[in-house]
Amino acid sequence: MIKNIDASVVGTRQPRLDGPEKVSGRALFTDDVRPAGMLHGKILRSRYKHARILKLDTSKAERLPGVKAVITAVDATGIYATQNEPAICGDVTRYIGEELAAVAAIDEATAAKALELIDVEYEVLPSVTTIKESLEPGAAQVDPGIPGNIVSDNTDSYGETDEAFAHADLVFEDKFVTRPTHNLFAEYHVCVADFSRPDKLDIWTPTQTAYLFQHSFARSFKLSLNQVRIVHLHTGGAFSGRGSVRPHHYIAALLSRKAQRPVKVFSSGDEEFLICRTLGDNEYKLRTAVNRDGIVKAIDVEATLDGGGQGHALGYFGWMVGLCMSWIMDLEGIRFRRQVVLTNQRPNYLGHGGMMIGTNAGLMQQLQRIAATLNMDPVDLLLKNAIEAGHHGMTGEHFASCGLKECLEKVRDASGWKDKYGKLPKWHGIGVSMGSMAAGARGAFKHDTSAAMVKVGEDGLVTVYTGIPDMGQGTHTTMAIIAAEVLGIRAQNVQVVAGDTDITPVDVGAFAQRGTIMTGNAVKNAATEAREQLAKNAAEYLGVAEADLEFAGGHIYVSGSEIDLSVQGDDSILPGTRSAKNAEANQAAVASSTESDGKPTSVSFAKIAYGSLHSKEGRFVMGRGFYTTPVDFGTAAWSFGAQIAEVKVDPETGEVNVLKVWVAHDCGRAINPLAIEGQIDGQVYSAMSQVLYEECETDEGQYLNPSRLEYKMPRTYEMPDVEYFIVESNDPYGPFGAKEVGEGPIVVAGGAIAAAVSNAIDAFLPEIPMTPYKVWREITKNEKRRRGEAA
Amino acid sequence: MAKHIMCLTVNGDLHEFAVDDTDTLLDVIRNQVGFTGTKRGCTTGSCGVCTINNDRGESILACLTHALEWNGEAITTIEGLEANSELDAIQAAFVEFGAVQCGFCTPGVIMSAKALLNKYPNPTEEQINEGMAGVLCRCTGHIKVKEAIRNDFRLRQAKSGVRR
Lengths: 791, 164
Fold this sequence. Notes:
The structure holds two protein chains of two kinds.
Chain A: H1 19-23, E1 39-45, E2 51-57, H2 59-63, E3 67-72, E4 80-81, E5 85-86, E6 92-93, E7 99-105, H3 108-116, E8 119-124, H4 131-135, E9 150-159, H5 161-167, E10 170-178, E11 190-197, E12 200-204, H6 210-221, E13 228-231, H7 247-259, E14 263-266, H8 269-275, E15 282-290, E16 296-308, H9 314-326, E17 333-342, H10 356-373, H11 378-385, H12 404-415, H13 417-420, E18 428-439, E19 450-456, E20 462-466, H14 475-487, E21 494-497, H15 515-542, E22 549-552, E23 555-558, H16 569-573, H17 583-586, E24 602-604, H18 605-613, E25 622-627, E26 637-649, E27 656-666, H19 673-693, E28 698-699, E29 702-703, E30 721-727, H20 744-761, E31 767-768, H21 772-790
Parallel strand pairs in A: 1-14, 10-31, 12-13, 16-17, 20-21, 27-30
Antiparallel strand pairs in A: 1-7, 2-6, 2-8, 3-7, 4-5, 9-17, 10-15, 11-12, 11-14, 15-16, 18-26, 19-20, 19-25, 22-23, 23-24, 26-27, 28-29
Helix pairs in contact in A: 10-20, 14-15, 15-18, 19-20
Chain B: E1 4-10, E2 13-19, H1 25-33, E3 51-54, E4 59-61, E5 74-76, H2 89-96, H3 106-119, H4 125-131, H5 143-160
Parallel strand pairs in B: 1-5
Antiparallel strand pairs in B: 1-2, 3-4, 3-5
């Protein structure tokens, strides 16, 4: 008998459960869906950045054999995508790529041919393509309803910002800009819609939130919620880019309604860049008030955000961007102003890492300069200001768990910071960064609830039903682990059913880092209810009270009794197979532990699951659970992290080579360390990519690099080594103490890499991405300045 | 436009079908043969999700390859790697080492890795970097993909019991 071995599933390295399906090519994505009679849709897009549509004649396209439906703005009256975008533009187009008409045909070639037959006459209007042009007096008006082109101007101010600035020893000010990016997930935008019956709309599409999609479609087409079915099979990445219904989704549904057949709309490579809704050209002014002892007193950020042709929702989300700076430091005041300006560019929204990669890249460069000015070590400066558990934030946040300081110490020690900072060879640099991310956000949506169901089959295998999509982050495996932990079985004996609103319970979705904490708690609650149902039968069987039972290793056993947890109880009933065929026959093979008097002290999980259904009572075990955040607004738990990056810069070309990144992340509790490492890897990649490479280049509103060849992202040979340190602060609200790892590390990584480049060339880099030319330009400016001073 | 009849051996099975001049291998694999593991991405050869192998085990971008030119040839897609319902060592390594996240690029990444390992059974870091440069994976940042490839050799040895 082995006692006290740790049989917990939480904290073990679990390969993702859908791994075998994905590596074998069996995993289905939306483009693999082909309902009977499916047509192919193509969209006619505006060629001009600002023009009045004088004529749009579709008659020739309609007559082309094989064309089954042609739609224009008339067919889409009153249907708007997020940010007030008409699904199809009817009168004045405000950016290149805006939807003007669409065709459904028997194949893609016919649909493409039909688009060429649509006759459009434009009257070109004056336009603005940059923030600067847009704000000039007398500038062309992007939206007739918005004089001056400023669509929103909001300021959030907490604490005593002006007071702190007035009394601080020193004030630092820097300006920087970030350039437009693309989320660039592997699976392009695609939607299959079947609206051939008026009372049911079936949508297949990759998404972060089936729930909000269901609401948007129901509202737009005046259907009840259960008349809209959103199916998301596997989703090929999201990176903050699949949170809302876009024109192409509505167009697929409209085409299907008109053609009375299912329609697929698949975006081509260059189209992909026009229809993404992510970060635009953003300008920031960052002021920081600091005392000579290194205490940061207040931060004041003024942002001017390029909303593009719409951008109505952008200002709303900005509140978190400023606020997140106050989550890491004990400030006296913070103010964040963001002005959203319309331009004749693609409508912009949030990107991977919110806007926070850019803002943190600015802040960490500035804090590094502050440390140098004060003759302090930057890590010491961050440690001096970093908050601790129990801290109360300026908007009433209570940080119940916080491992920020531990994260800083971990990366400082592992990277050899003390021997490197200020001591590296010329053109080498090292930078430190810290950050925080909210897990869940009540107020960003109408509610923040996740629900789940846990079914225990009569063979002892468990099914979790959840509405949360897995876009690659591994949340379904996380949910299986959580259910397995509660029920004391292996994660492999849990399957997760998701991706169909006709089947799964409500879940706001996978954004705002709410998956692990919100859906995780819902699954935990549902599994707990199932466990209570099982405990009733197990207690009868073992002749003890329900409260005396423990669930682990596939066994249900009397607390305190000796049990060999190294032998899986659930395996013993189903040797080496998930098949339930022989479950009944195997019942006999189950050896129950017994005390010396012959009374059993344990029973296998599967036996009780079987026995519950086959008892006189005939109880089928099914648990339900839901969870919402305990706070009235915002968030109950925050992740924290610190990173150090080491880089080498080529002074001749300005090229940056990231050598290594040390990452410490306080995720609360590591449910699955393998998945956490994977999340960190991807975020270091994307942060490095955004800080050094990624930029949608435009000229007069026209995209110049709309492909993966020209839009630069890191290839294999450019990736640095990444060393991970998982810090566990055990949050009281998180399931088993877990918080988030979905977006925290990306913000921190951006700051560390930016600070390292800044350290290598001894200058503040005012433009992100820091492409070779821009780095070289700053090096040259620096050299000139030095020579000028010497002369 | 007249169609042409062509034949192609896909994962060991001979298929015959009619194609247009403009059809690519990606079109015929997905639409005629019906294997959907080979993914449609950029269709301009820049993302690598459509990577398959030719009969010499080299990688090919199916989206850029005209189907007709491959009349009578043999190819392997991701579905052809499994034998007797068992994953190939590189597929198993991808699962075990966390080299799979969203999974959309995974078939293409694995077929690229397969081609690399066919050429270099125990590749150096440089060979991995070069061999895998044609595929993009934002989820994993290539890090665990490289780890899986490094471990493929070890897994294969352990499985066969042969020391080289």
